[in-house]
Every structure is written in C-alpha cells, then in structure tokens.
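Service request form, structural biology core

Requester: graduate student, group of Dr. S.
Request type: structure prediction, single chain
Budget code: on file
Notes: please return the result as structure tokens.

Sequence provided:
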Amino acid sequence: MTLTHSGKTLKEALKFVGGSERLVATKEQYSGSVMFLNSTRQELLKKYRQQWVAVYQSHVIANAKKYDDVIQELGAKDVPIEETVIKYLSDREMMTLF
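Core staff response, request fulfilled:
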C-alpha cells in the first residue's frame, strides 16, 4: 500500500482530487499558465509592474497591488485558487518553476 504525506492511500488521494485524469488536466493547465507567465513576463511587467497577477488558463484574470485583493477577486470570480498561478511582478526577475 502506498501512502501520501497525509496518510491517505494513493487511491484515496486521487479520488479526493477528482481522479487521475482530472489531476493530469489540472497539472497541464497550471504548467501552461506558468509557461505563459514566464514567456510573456516583459509584456506583463510593462502593464502590471509592482503588482500581483493571477494567471489561470494562460490568461491574466486578476491583478492588484495587494495580494489579498487578488485573492478576493479570484473568490468573486469563483476561480480555483489552487489551480491559479499568482506572482508579484517586479524588476527583479525570478523564474516560476511550479
């Protein structure tokens, strides 16, 4: 029996996230949003400098100077926060890895 860090079996964990197909789809969507953010950083920096941005399905869907405001906007739009890439855009470049 394989256990996850929470003590659930792998089967239980997969059921919790909606199954293996849903897990793969979510990972691909999230990875695509990370790639979008990294590849369009310079353009996004011009528009959203010194702001938090939220990227979901390879689109900027929220931005604000305060992190809490971005989170609040995601909630208002009913966007799954756990599937959204959130990053602060500043002149200091940092690669988003996951």
